[in-house]
Every structure is written in structure tokens, then in C-alpha cells.
Amino acid sequence: MSGPVRIEVADGIAVATLANPPVNALSAGLRAGLLDALRQAEADSTIRALVIAAEGRSWIAGADISEFGKPPVSPTLADVIAALDASPKPVVAAIHAAALGGGLEVAMACTARVLGPRASLGLPEVKLGLLPGSGGTQRAPRLMGAAAALRLMVQGDPLDAKAALAAGLADALAEDDLLAEARALAARLSPAPVSVRNDRLGSREAFEVEAANYAKRAAEEPQVADCIACVRAAFEKPFVEAVAQERAAFLRLLDDPRSKALRHVFFAERESARVPNLPAGTQPRPVARAAVLGSGTMGAGIAMCFANAGIPVRVIETDEEALARGLTRIRGTYDSSVKRGSLTPEARDARMALIEGAVGLDAVADADLVIEAVFEEMALKREVFATLDRVTKPGTVLASNTSYLDIDEMARATARPGDVLGMHFFSPANVMRLLEVVRGAATSPEALATAVEIGKRLKKTPVVVGVCYGFVGNRMLARRTAQVERLLLEGATPDQVDAALVAFGFRMGPCAMSDLAGLDIGWRIRRASGKRAPVADALVEAGRLGQKTQKGFYLYPEGARAGVVDPEVTALIEQVSAAEGVARRVIGAEEILDRLVLPMVNEGARILEEGIAARPGDIDVVWLHGYNWPAWRGGPMHHADALGLVRIAARLTALAQQTGDDSLLPAPLLARLAAEGRGFASLKAT
Ligand code: 3H9
């Protein structure tokens, strides 16, 4: 049989093998193939039972997410599941790998489930802003109990084979021959639909206790509230009515902008990992050893990323004292993880054993990749790259962790600019997932592929960007920071500015963030480039450097983490406004939000037009993983599309007029797309 489902019959048992690469998503073809297999088994009197097996890295990864929002194509998943449920012959799922979402729903509609050792079973729909929509909210409670089923759905993380078996989701674990065991089980079973059993639901009390754990999330995430309501319906309604409730909730959530944003994120994250314009067949160079220059906050964090990934790394400093400080810093971070219980002492020791300290640049000689994290000063960087060129072996990838500076200028300090690129980690480097991989004018495809590959090995989300001041993330952030300064000068207070972004979904506002990072960082950068920010400068000059001095935009009495409003700051800002000749006024939350977010979108449009980012989704991924943009808002460019570019262009024009700041005028690309009635997402197709 052609198509994604192959059927073989032997000894009265039919085995339907699914092959729909890469992950066996339940596309229309796979659904039709499954239904055909079921019909064939039903119609053929020589077939006693059916086994559903699959090839590839997943058993079934769930519904085909790319079909969501498009007109439904028959047969639907509901049709397939209804047919499984009503099958007059037993059906056994032989699960060798991930059965997720709709995949697990298919498995749960079978008579029994046999797992291979690498199987994993989960209902991750909440992560896409959805709930299991093909009976999962009713069958999972009937197999594993309502409380455990709710936990599986709300947490969204899969169970491994042993845990799934222990939870009651599966009937057997096959250590050797999965198919043989599934066939043997199929031969002796009779059909027994999960939908009609209620013996394992567990107590209503236990379920309500579990549900109470998610009260806060349910208030913020509609899909969590729906999971709770649907599982509760398993106690209160007949199966068919509860499934109808689940279906209605699924369709409502599918249309919710928050789910659309989360689905966009799913695809944008995967697309950003594909490097644009890389010649076919480009191979990354092997990296067995790395070296990091500098053991300050960034250098130490980067070295830990390598050790965490099992890659030996040498940390290089200019003198013994600095090196000792750096290694103590690393050890201290691991020690706190051990104290928190997130790392075992053995794992800490194993990681520390991969980190070797050395003094002097000669120690990079055997490294396959060197990342410099020295002071942000071009003259120093040039000197470092010139030396690296001399002391490293041919083919070593030479990377800078600079946040702003020109990679091409650093590359020109070497005789091998093809090996030079940027690897911009975000602080804290051992925690933040974003890695901006900066492609210089001369960077070779192999060096670029190596940096991206190593980023994946470090469990980062690499995004390839071009050379410009601040690359993608910091360049856009600068637009927001400039607006924070203007808003404060014109009448807003730090807590009003922060509240607007927190209400939008950020965990922290920009003023609180500056206090955390230290106001002196921006101050030093401004001094070096001859720029001013009257409010922020005045705070630094008054000794208010942020949390480390217990006062910045806010007060931090006795080292408190959350700042409190300080009337002294309000008075100071008012003085600065007067000195700058800026009249203060009350600024509403809506204007604050527009002025913080829309100039960033505008800069994103310029970044796209200049080719600094290849795709709007890449910009979104940068903001999601480098700056904690709320995932359910999809990233700045997705958010812009959701708001509508016509509206944004009009608002930016009005803001430019109101403030006299021409940089707020719509960027040409934004203006053009708005005029054509298009969004950033449409750029993919052109
Ligand atoms: C659902 O089931 C709803 C139902 O309850 C009700 C329905 C009515 N659809 O991640 P990878 C693509 S909601 C379409 O790099 P890995 C992915 O885009 C669904 N495409 O592989 C990528 O494409 P490309 C619930 C999908 O080995 C390629 O496959 N299920 C889907 O690192 C490889 O993906 C989920 O949420 C999909 N469902 O990880 C599970 N899944 O190569 C989502 C993947 O063009 N999937 N693709 O970039 C995953 O978590 C991971 O993909 C998985 C494999 C763990 C399976």
C-alpha cells in the first residue's frame, strides 16, 4: 500500500506502520491511512486484531499544527478516534518513541498500549495555548486517574516509558521486541473501549486538590482553566457530553490570539535554527575543545555552558589573581545549584573537571573554538584577535562575545577573516537560551555552521544576525531605552513605566531591569560614545547604581529584591525635567506602552530591510529568549501583525508629530507593508 501507512498481515494480526516523516504528525494523509487500515482490518474476516506501529523518531507527534486555522479536511482526527473507539476488533498501539497530543489520544482510543524503552507519552497542548481536543481530557483520566491526568495536561511534559506504565497510561513495557509483544497482546485481547470505563477516575477530592494547585495559572491561561473544567466534566457528565465540551473549548482556544502566538513561536523557533543562504552540503567543523578569554560574569557563564554540555573548556585570564576569582565565581554558581538541589555534587564535580584555568593567550593553541569575552573596547579586541590569529591552529573558529561592536573590524585584525564571527551570549550566559551568531562580511559558511551547531550542543537557541551596532536585540532595546528616558522626562514615573510593561506580560519593567543590571553599565557606554540620558545619568551621578547600591530607580532597603518607590527619585526626575526645559504632564498607560513597544517594532522593520535578520520570526525568537518577551504575545513582529501594521503606522506617525522625534516615523518597510495591507509574516512568501 502506498502513502504514509503500510499494512502487513501475518497470523491473523494486521500491523499498520505509520511513516510520515519527520515526526508522524497526524496530517490529512496519515489520518486517511489510519482509517483505511482500520476499515480493512474490520472488513477482512481473516484479521483478528490490528497493531498500530510507526517508523521514525516519533510514534505520533500529535495533530499537524500547520493545519490549524485552515479549513478542516476529512477524515478529521475525531473521525479516526471515533472509529478506533467503536472498533469491533482489538487495536494495540506499539509505541517506540514520542506519542504526544493527538498521538497519545490515538493511543488512548486503542484497546491497549505497549511501550518500547524509548517511548514517551504526553499531552503538551497547553504549551500551544490549547487543550487535548480529541478526547484526551476524558480518556487520560479514565486510564490514570483525574488528578494525575490533570497534572500531565497542565504541566505539558511527557512521561518516560516506565513512568507512563506506572501511571496506568500503558499496559506493558517491551524490553526486547516491541512488535512481537504488541502482536501477542493483540492476539489475546477483546475490544474494551476506554470511553466506557470509570473504574480508574479516582476520587473527586484528589482531583480538586490537584486543580487548586493551578488556580493562579487558570486565572491567567485560558487553556489551563479549560483543562480543569473538562477533566471535572469527567465526573459530572456522560462521556459524549464531556467530549463535546472539550471540543468546544478546543475550537475557542484555537481562535484565541494567545494560542496563535504560541503556535507562531513553535515554528519560528524551529525555523530560526535553519541558517539562511548556507551553500548546500556545508559541514560544521568538529569542536572537541573550546577556550574562553576572560572570566568575568560573561566569560564564566560561557565557560559553564561548555562544561554543562560535556565539552572541555579552558578559561584564560591575564593573571593568576583574576583567574582565581573567575574559577571561584564558577564554582560558587555550581555550589548554589547543588544547594538548591538542581545539581548533584557529582555532576558539579564532573563539570568543574571539564573547566581548566590558564594564564596567557598561548593556552588557546589546541582549541577548536575560541570565544573572547574581554572588555568592550575595540582597540583591545583588535589586539586580541591579532594574537589569536598567530597562536591558534588553522581552522579554529574565532568568536567575539561583543554586545555591540563591529565584528568585521575585528576580523580585519586577522589574516583569516573567514574564521571570525560573533557569538553573543545573554546574561546570565549559563541560563539565557538566546545566542546571536553574528555573521561578518567575510565569515565562511563552515565557521558559521560551526557556531550554530555548537550553539545547539550548548542547548541554546542560535539565531544568525548581521553586523550592526547592537545586532538585533540590543539595537531594538536601545529604541525602548530611549523612550523610557523621554517618558520619564515628560512626566511618567519609573513605576508607571514598569507597570505598563508588566501589564503587557513582561516579568519586569525596564527601570527595575536597569536596577538589576546596574545603571553604571549604560552610563559607561554612553560616556564612551558621547551620548546623554539626562535622567539615568543624574541617577548614576547621585550614586544610585541600582540594586548593588541598594538604590537606583527604586529603593532596595536591606538588599530587598523588589524595589520600592522613592520620593527622592521623583524629585530628582522633576529637577532634571526642569533643567532640560521639558514640561511634565500625566501620561496614560496606553501611551507609555505604545511608546515602549512600537519604536522597537519600527526598528525591527529597519533590521529586516537591511537584512540584519533574515526573517521576522528570527527577531521574535531573539526577544523571546534574550529579553523574556512573553511567549503568548509571540514576539514583537508577531505582536505587530496581530495589532495590524496600518494601525501601527498611524500611531507611529502621530507619536513622531507629538514628540518631534522623526526616528518614530514609520520605517519604509513598515509603511510599505501597511499600505499594501500586509503583515511582516507575509515576507516569508516573497
Ligand atoms: C494536538 O495534538 C491537538 C490535539 O489534541 C487535538 C487536535 C484536534 N505538527 O521539534 P523538531 C515539525 S496539538 C506539525 O525539530 P525533534 C517541526 O516543525 C500538537 N509539524 O524535532 C519540524 O519541522 P522543520 C501536540 C510538526 O526531534 C520537524 O517536525 N503535539 C509537529 O527535536 C521536526 O521537529 C506537540 O505539541 C506537529 N505536531 O522533536 C508536539 N511536530 O524540520 C510538537 C513537529 O520543517 N512537537 N513538527 O522545522 C515536538 O514537541 C517535537 O517536534 C518532537 C520532536 C518532540 C515531536
Numbering strands along the chain, what is their spatial order in the largest sheet?
Answer: 15-14-13-16-17-18-19-20
Number of strands: 20
List low-confidence stretches: none
How helical, in percent, are the residues?
40-55%
Rg, alpha carbons: 28 Å
How would you describe this structure in keywords?
about 675 residues, alpha/beta, 6-stranded mixed beta sheet, 29 helices, about 50% helix, about 10% strand, binds (S)-3-Hydroxyhexanoyl-CoA
Kindly describe this structure.
- The chain is of the alpha/beta class.
- 50% of the residues lie in helices and 12% in strands.
- The chain is built from 29 helices and 20 strands.
- An eight-stranded mixed beta sheet has the order 15-14-13-16-17-18-19-20, sandwiched between helices.
- β16 (369-372), α16 (378-391) and β17 (397-400) form a beta-alpha-beta unit.
- The longest helix has 21 residues, at 320-340.
- The two termini are 38 Å apart.
- 48% of the residues are buried.
- Bound molecules: (S)-3-Hydroxyhexanoyl-CoA (3H9).
- Residues 22-23, 25, 57-58, 61-66, 77, 98, 100-102, 105, 124-125, 128, 130, 132-134, 136, 267, 270 line the site of (S)-3-Hydroxyhexanoyl-CoA.
